[in-house]
Write a structure and sequence with these properties.
The protein is α+β, with helices and mostly antiparallel strands and about 110 residues long. The chain has 4 helices and 4 strands; from the N terminus they run αβαββαβα.
Amino acid sequence: MNRKQEHDYVLALSTFPEEEMARKVARELIENAFVACANIIPSVQSIYFWQGKVEEGAEVLALFKMTAARFDDFVKKLRELHPYELPEIVRLNIDGGLPEYLRWINESCGRK
C-alpha cells in the first residue's frame, strides 16, 4: 500500500452524554454510509476545562471508521445529530492496516 492510500482512511473520536444517544447517532451514520463502523465504549471518565472551570463527568466514547473522502460530510452530519453545543470531533489518519479491512471501509462508505 502506498502512502496516499494509507491516508485515504480515518478514525474519528467523539464523546456523548449517554450510550443510547451514541448508539442512535452511530446507527444513522452507518445506515447513511458516512461511516463503515462505530465502536461504542460505554464508560469513560472525562475531566476537561469548560466555560472557565474544570468539569468532570461520565461519558460514552465512540470510535468511527470511514474514508477520508467522507470525513467532511461526517462532521457536518455529526454536528447536526450531536446533543453537545461543542462536540468532540477528532480525526486521526489511519497510517496502515489490513488491506482487506481498509477495502471493506471503502466499500461500506461508498454504497450510497
